[in-house]
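Usage example:
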Amino acid sequence: MYYLGCDIGTGYTKGVLIDEEGKIVCSRIIPTNADPRNSSKSIIDSLLKDAAIKEDQIKGCGTTGWGRSYFPLKHKELSIINCIAKGASFVRPSCRTVIDIGAQHSLVILIDENGNPVEFRQNDKCAAGCGRFIEVISEALQVPLEKISDFALSAKEKVNITSQCAVFAESEVITYVNDGRPVDAILAGVIDSIGKSLSSIAKRLLLQDEILVSGGMAKNRALVGAVEKNLEKKLYIAEPDPQLIPAIGAALFVKEGRR
Amino acid sequence: MIFAGCDVGSLTAKALLMDENENIIAYEIMNVLPNPVRSAEEIMSRTLKKAGISMDDITYCISTGYGREKIPFAQGNISEISCHGKGAHWLNPKIRTIIDIGGQDLKAIRVDENGELVDFIMNDKCAAGTGRFLEGIAKTLNVSLDELGPLALKGKNPISITSQCTIFTQFDVMHLIVEGADKADIAAGVAKAMAQRMHKLVRKVGIKKEVAITGGVAKNQGVVKYLQEIIKSEVYQFRQIDPQVIGALGAALFAKEIYMRKKG
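Running the assembly step on the lines above writes:
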């Protein structure tokens, strides 16, 4: 029998299937496109196909994230904070802090040795310090999202982005382009700015080693580096895929609940 | 004699010309060019052309707006807050409170019976409540900025908008569209959210009657409707002139005042 965890975020919908041993059988990540009903349905179909199983072989589904109530099958809705903490301690039992950077939130959670959240700080009110900020800039500069990190890391200089607001930063970026500043220098400045916003949230807590980073933005090495520099701490990128951590947590919760 | 006001904002540039009797001769509005100096030169040359005169005919010029310090042909510059106060008060001497919504800022300005600045408050850190907010939403709704106001007036059941961030609201709107919500009700909800945001700011300087609205967003009748509802007062709109040029108007009035004072 299998357990399905689905994290329906504002940016992406993530699904994992785990077996009775807690082993990850397969996983999928697709854009939500503001349509959580459709994206979660696609996730279910793809996971069933990848694992070559039927729907009745799924013993339970756990959902989390912004669109968690739109999941079409019978499911248990779980808090994103609990799911991140659970998933993080499962993939890296030695971690005591998780920094999760999603499209429209950034979360810093302190967890105990059993993977329970102890304390957290979050920003879900403003795009500064969230993935959406990079998305806005990536569109303005017409640099694909996956290339942003390499561009920023190759920069010899960096511009100073003074606006916190993503909308105003976009105008600032366009001004720099018009002034003839190189794109990599602009991106290095943008990454620096997001790194600072994120670090200021993290600094509101007494961070405990080891620190794990999860969420889609954890795949941006330049950003992780900027946060490391600001916090003067080593960060570990969650494996096997930082974007799947909450979905893994959700699947584990339903598995334990059913036992 | 010709007095000129030139207002270079973050999104649009405005210029206005008047004679010594304070008759408005001409004004123009355009989207800014990448460089504020070029924007100022271009908007002034368009306005001069409309009036059928040349740069040499200008007796005195005051610049305002975010690019005001860089305008080469202006003899001086004055903050847009004072200029908006001045312009609004000249148009209607009963005005005591002005809500000005620019492309990238939101201001509440209090003036006295002489049009002098008493107090002001400004948000220029976050796009919520500014012209950029409406611009973003119009883009997501796939309507032009001009269509957004009439669309909002058509919405009978404004949908509550919970996010404050422009970027997050754009996502909420995308999701509402996917869920089949009525576009007019979304536009009404956005106008209401905007009005609430404006109210939050203006009440910090005190709402003293009469209240006027200026800037580009003043053209959105949906926002004006909800603002009147929320502050429980009539909001004066300057129908005799484009609400976007009131800063430039104030600057031209200052130009005349300063010139006359210098002349003795």
